[in-house]
């Protein structure tokens, strides 16, 4: 009974997207939707087969993923460390927080012209932009997470003799983790967005470059494919944080439910 | 710590001329209190009269402005009104926090034993969020007891619990106290609770000891014992006289 209902639900959920897809395909086949505006879904699928057979798709995907990860590790790492410093020490907060709170209002993509002057259209420019973009959400949420750990728990831990590293690893870090993961999820969104912009404007490889190169030959099927790949990567990153939340926050009833 | 004195005469906790001021505000004035080893003293008083302050001085969390507290070197533990469990640590790991050091493999047995003492032997692996309020407070009690303290101070430990759970917790505390033999000081708003559990009930009013009555009723005590009711009435009367 419940399995049947689950199946029915799945059909209901899929009804609208499948209908749209079918309508799109029909419109393309009848010529109502010209291929130079939007290619048929089957054409996008063919492009995917073609590019993965030639290896171009995987090469570009690997390049984009490597850029994203490098930027995330550098920017996220610095943001995490500075967030801890300003969250744990009054002096650190006085020194860092006012400046960072001010600078975070600058949209990092506004720096593109400057970044191109500094680094040219080299790899460093794209990684710098991604790192800058992910830095703020990680910094802000780490700082906030550390600052809002229940002071009653910290007092309890101190009374029971916890100090230094043990206090940090047993009480402060786990207490800050939900907030840090919220920051990570934000950061991943910013990461892909920044990469799309950076690769579209100036790159000779990567998914964004693949889309821009396709534009010159009016290959809307390849452009569409790139868009779908970005969407899939974004979804993948989101699922990864959800996985971490379920794993690390299983103590928290709000996250344990999903299993 | 010297074993020369006779057991019966030794005071586990001796408070002499204790005063505490926060800035210009005097919260406790010249408190004198001697609690025999293994004794159970209940402290009652109006909100803000200085009960929590006294308790923090007794366990050495704060320093007195003058006077002294001598707990004979016994290890002191404090149970708060809230359980204050680490939500990300299992029940067993929370109890192990009470050891006051990084736990080793050989500590598992003593943690398990203490959990049995509070009736939670089968919940060692559970998350605190899956426990009821009363069960959480039992874990907090186990955490305080796991290191076998000589002196246990409790600050309204059952204040947040419903009336029935509270009665359960009172009899649990009495059982554990009789079995382990630590010296206990219980701060409570509930005069009936104070009388039911204490060897003595101390009433604090405006930072001074206003009343110190013995509860000479043998244990286990029955709910509704008229002698307990008489003492409760006496304390309440003094409490409302001010
Ligand atoms: N750290 C502090 N700094 C300044 N004043 C304090 C501090 N701690 C307590 N006080 C004051 O001391 C008085 C006694 O406080 P205490 O917490 O001991 O009361 P209490 O008897 O435990 O009250 P309650 O029954 O409401 O818990 C209060 O007036 C309070 O404002
Ligand atoms: Mg209090």
Task: Give a written overview of the molecule.
The complex is a heterodimer of chains A (259) and B (242). The longest helix of chain A is centred in the C-terminal third of the chain and has 38 residues, at 164-201. The two termini of chain A are 22 Å apart. Chain A has 259 residues and is mainly α. Chain A has a single domain (40-256), classed as Orthogonal Bundle (MetI-like fold). Chain A contains eleven helices and no strands. Chain A is flat. Chain A has helices at 2-29, 41-54, 56-88, 90-103, 112-119, 123-147, 151-159, 164-201, 207-216, 220-248, 253-256. In chain B, the strands form two sheets. In chain B, strands 5-6-7-3-8-9 form a six-stranded mixed sheet, sandwiched between helices. Chain B has a three-stranded antiparallel sheet with strand order 2-1-4, with helices on one face. With 242 residues, chain B is of the alpha/beta class. In chain B, helix 2 packs across helix 3, helix 3 crosses helix 4 and helix 6 (191-197) packs across helix 7 (226-241). The model of chain B is unreliable at 1-10 (pLDDT under 50). Chain B has a domain at 86-147. The termini of chain B are far apart. At the A-B interface, helix 7 and helix 8 of A face loops of B. The complex binds adenosine-5'-triphosphate (ATP) and magnesium ion.
Give the SSE map.
The complex is a heterodimer of chains A (259) and B (242).
Chain A: H1 2-29, H2 41-54, H3 56-88, H4 90-103, H5 112-119, H6 123-147, H7 151-159, H8 164-201, H9 207-216, H10 220-248, H11 253-256
Chain B: E1 11-22, E2 25-36, E3 40-45, H1 51-58, E4 66-70, E5 76-79, H2 91-97, H3 108-117, H4 133-145, E6 151-155, H5 163-180, E7 183-187, H6 191-197, E8 200-205, E9 208-214, H7 226-241
Parallel strand pairs in B: 3-7, 3-8, 5-6, 6-7
Antiparallel strand pairs in B: 1-2, 1-4, 8-9
Helix pairs in contact in B: 2-3, 2-4, 3-4, 6-7
The complex binds adenosine-5'-triphosphate and magnesium ion (MG).
């Amino acid at each position: 009974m419940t399995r049947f209902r689950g199946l029915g639900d799945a059909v209901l959920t899929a009804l609208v997207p499948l209908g749209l897809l079918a309508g799109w395909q029909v419109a393309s086949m009848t010529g109502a939707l010209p291929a130079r505006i939007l290619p048929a879904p089957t054409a996008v699928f063919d492009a995917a087969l073609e590019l993965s057979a030639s290896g171009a798709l995987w090469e570009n995907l690997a390049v984009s993923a490597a850029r994203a990860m490098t930027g995330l590790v550098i920017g996220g790492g610095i943001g995490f460390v500075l967030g801890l410093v300003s969250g744990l020490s009054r002096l650190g907060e006085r020194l860092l927080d006012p400046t960072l709170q001010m600078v975070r209002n600058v949209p990092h993509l506004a720096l593109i012209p400057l970044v191109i002057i500094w680094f040219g259209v080299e790899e460093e420019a794209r990684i710098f932009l991604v790192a800058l973009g992910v830095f703020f959400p990680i910094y802000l949420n780490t700082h906030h997470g550390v600052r809002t750990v229940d002071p009653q728990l910290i007092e309890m831990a101190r009374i029971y003799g916890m100090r230094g590293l043990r206090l940090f690893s047993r009480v402060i870090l786990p207490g800050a983790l939900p907030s840090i993961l919220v920051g990570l999820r934000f950061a991943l969104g910013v990461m892909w967005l920044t990469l799309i912009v950076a690769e579209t404007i100036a790159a000779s490889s990567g998914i964004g470059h693949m889309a821009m190169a396709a534009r010159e030959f009016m290959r809307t099927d390849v452009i569409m494919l790139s868009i779908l790949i970005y969407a899939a990567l974004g979804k993948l990153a989101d699922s990864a944080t959800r996985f971490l939340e379920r794993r690390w926050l299983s103590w928290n009833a709000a996250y344990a439910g999903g299993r | 710590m010297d074993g020369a004195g006779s057991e019966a005469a030794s005071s586990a906790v001796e408070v002499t001329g204790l005063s505490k001021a926060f800035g210009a505000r005097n919260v406790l004035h010249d408190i004198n209190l001697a609690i025999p080893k293994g004794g159970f003293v209940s402290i009652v008083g109006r909100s803000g009269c200085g009960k929590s302050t006294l308790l923090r001085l007794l366990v050495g969390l704060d320093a007195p402005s003058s006077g002294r507290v001598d707990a004979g070197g016994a290890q002191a533990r404090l149970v708060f009104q809230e359980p204050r469990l680490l939500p990300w640590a299992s029940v067993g790991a929370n109890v192990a926090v009470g050891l006051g050091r990084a736990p080793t493999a050989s500590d598992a047995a003593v943690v398990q034993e203490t959990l049995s003492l509070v009736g939670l032997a089968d919940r060692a692996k559970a998350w605190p969020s899956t426990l009821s309020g009363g069960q959480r407070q039992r874990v907090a009690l186990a955490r305080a007891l796991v290191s076998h303290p000589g002196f246990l101070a409790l600050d309204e430990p059952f204040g947040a619990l419903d009336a029935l759970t509270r009665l359960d917790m009172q009899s649990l505390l009495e059982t554990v106290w009789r079995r382990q033999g630590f010296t206990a000081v219980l701060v409570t708003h509930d005069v009936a609770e104070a009388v039911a559990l204490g060897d003595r009930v101390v009433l604090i009013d405006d930072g001074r000891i206003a009343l110190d009555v013995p509860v000479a009723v043998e244990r286990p005590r029955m709910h509704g014992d008229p002698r307990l009711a008489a003492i409760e009435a006496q304390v309440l009367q003094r409490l409302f006289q001010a």
